Amino acid sequence: MAKRGIGLNDSTQEKEGRKKISKDSFRRGIRIFSYVLPYKFKFIIGLGFLVLSSLTFMIFPYLVGKLFDESENEMINMYALGLLAVILFQGIFSFFRVYFFAQVSENAVANIRRDLYSKFVQLPISFYEKRRVGEITSRITTDVAQVQDAMSITLAELFRQVTTLIVGVALIMWISIKLSLFMLATFPVLVILAMIFGRRIKKLSKKTQDELANTNVIVEETLQAINTVKAFTNEMFEVARYRTTLAKAVRTAIATANYRGAFITFIIVGLFGGIILVIWYGATLVANGEIERDSFVSFVLYTVFIGASVGGLGDLYGKIQTALGATERIQEILAETEEPTDKRQRPLSEIRRVRGDISYSQVAFSYPTRPDIQVLRDINFSINSGEKIALVGPSGAGKSTIVQLLLRLYDVSHGSITVDGQDIRQMNLTELRANVGIVPQEVLLFGGSIRENIAYGRPEATEEEIIAAARKANAYDFILTFPEGLDTLVGERGIKLSGGQRQRVAIARAILKNPAILVLDEATSSLDSESEHLVQQAMDELMKNRTTIVIAHRLATIRKVDKILVIDGGEIVEEGSHEVLSLNDNGIYANLLRLQFEMS
Ligand SMILES: Nc1ncnc2c1ncn2[C@@H]1O[C@H](COP(=O)(O)OP(=O)(O)OP(=O)(O)O)[C@@H](O)[C@H]1O
C-alpha cells in the first residue's frame, strides 16, 4: 500500500501562528466561546470574583496614602488593618476567580479536544495527505492550550488591566488634573517605548532558540543514523558541521544579551527617571499647597499601577493575537467535512453481510493531491463471490490504489465500482468497510496486549473466539510460548514480534472479523521458510470462502488464484490464469516469473 511519511520532527517545525486582530477575526474567534456556554453560570460567578478582586485592589493606594499622612497612632493602626483586610479579600476573591475559571476552561477545553479528536478520526484520508502529522497533532495540543490560556488567564488579565487603567486614570484625575496631565504626557510614552524594546528582545530570543534548535537537529540526526556516520567515516565532518551552527547560535545569543543589557539600563534610567519626574512635579505641587500629601502618595502608587497595566496590555495584545490564530485553525478543522460513516459503533453482527461480487467498470483515478497525474485508467474486471484474484505488476503500477478505491478511501474519478451489483458510493460506508478485511504489507500493532490486537477485528468477540482465530492463524503456538500468553504486551512498551508473527496476528484479526471480502497485501520482505510456510497456511485458511484480492509481490504464492491481473502504468495489460499467462513468452507476467526465478 502507499505509505505516508510521518516526520518525527514535524511538531518542532511548527510556525508560531498569529492573527491580526480585526473585527472579522475577533468575531470568528469569539465563536469558540460556544464551548463555554454549558458552564456559563460558573463563568459568570468567576467573572464576579474577578470584578471584586480588581476593584478591591484599587483601594490599596488610597489607604497607603492615608497611612503615610496620619500622625495619630490609633488611626495608623486602623489604616494598616484596612490594608491587611484589602489584601485578604483580594486573596480570597482571587482564589475563587481561579477556582471557577479553571472549572470552566478545563471542561470547555476537554470538549474542544474531544470534538477535534472525533473529527480527526472521521476525516477522509485526503485531509491527511495535504498536511503533516505534526501539524495536525499540534492543533489538539498547542492550539488548544493557547485557547485555554486565553479563556482562563488572558481574559482575566485583560479585564484587570483595563479596570486598573480606567479606574486608576479616573482617580488620579480626581486627585489632581494638572499632575495627571503631566504624568500622562510622560510616563505612558516611556512604558510604550519599553514595550517596543521588549518585543524586539522577544524576537531575538526566539531567534536564539531557533538557532539552538538547529544545532539539536544535527545531534538528533547523527545520533539516529550513527551507523551511517561511522560507515562513511564522517565523524569529523559532523563535528565541524556542529561547530559551525553552534558558533552561529552563540553569536545570536550574545547579540540578544547585549540588547537585553541595554533594555535593563533603559528601564532603570528611563522608567524610574519618569517616576522621579512625576514625583518631582508632584512634590512641587504639594509644596505650593495645590494637593494634599496623602493624595500625592496615592497618586504615585496609582501611577505605578497604571504604568504596569499599560505594559501588561501590550503583552496581552500579543497573547490575544496568538489565541485568535489558534481558534481560527481549530475552527477550520471543525468545519471540515467528515466521511459519511455511522455515528454509532455497531457490533459486526448487526451489519448486513454482502455476498462479495465485485466489479470495476471503466475506473479511472487521480489522487486529489496530484490531479494532473492519472494513476489508473480504464480498469475493468469482475470477481464473483468466493473467487480469488491476484494483482501483479511493477512497483508504482497502481495495485494498492485499486484496493484503496474498493474501501472508498478515495472516490473514483471516472467509472464505477460495484459490490453485489450496487455502486459503492450508494452503500453505507461503515457497512462497506465492515465487509472488507485487510492484511497489510507492514503490520502495525497497537500498543496493548496481543488479545486486544486480535480483538481489534471484532471488539465484542469472546475469549473462545479470539483463541480459535489465533489457532487458525497459526499464531496460538507462539503466543503460548510467552509467559503472559494472550496478555503479552506488544508495541513500544511491550515485546517486539517478528515480521512473521506480526502477520499472523493480523491474519487472526481478519479471521475474527470474518469479512466477505478480503484484501491481502503481501509482504515484500521474505520471511524464513518456516515462518513463510506458517503464514501461507494461515492465509490459505483465511481465504477460504471469501472473495479475495491478493496484491502479490512474490509470484510463487499466487499460482492458486482464479485469475491474475497484470497492472502496468495504471492499466490492466494482461489477464488470465497462471498457466495461460506464463505461456505467453513476450508477456510481462512471464518476464516477471523469469526474473524472480533467476533471483532466487
Ligand atoms: N497518496 C498518494 N498521493 C499521490 N500519489 C500517490 C499516492 N499513493 C500512490 N501514489 C502514486 O500512485 C501510483 C500508484 O501507486 P500504488 O501505491 O498504487 O502502486 P503499487 O502498484 O501498489 O506499488 P507498490 O507495489 O510499490 O506498492 C504511484 O505512481 C504513486 O506514486
UniProtKB/TrEMBL annotation:
It comes from the Bacteria. One of its GO terms (molecular function) is ATP hydrolysis activity. It is found in: Cell membrane. Residues 44-322 form the ABC transmembrane type-1 domain. One of its GO terms (cellular component) is plasma membrane. Residues 358-594 form the ABC transporter domain. The chain crosses the membrane at residues 41-64, 76-96, 158-175, 181-198, 261-283, 295-314. Residues 1-20 are annotated as: Disordered. SUPFAM superfamilies: ABC transporter transmembrane region, P-loop containing nucleoside triphosphate hydrolases. InterPro entries: AAA+_ATPase, ABC1_TM_dom, ABC1_TM_sf, ABC_transporter-like_ATP-bd, ABC_transporter-like_CS, P-loop_NTPase, Type_1_exporter. Keywords: ATP-binding, Membrane, Nucleotide-binding, Transmembrane, Transmembrane helix. This is ABC transporter fused permease/ATP-binding protein. It is a multi-pass membrane protein. Gene3D superfamilies: ABC transporter type 1, transmembrane domain, P-loop containing nucleotide triphosphate hydrolases. The keyword Zinc does not apply. It comes from Pontibacter virosus. The keyword ATP-binding applies. One of its GO terms (biological process) is oligopeptide export from mitochondrion.
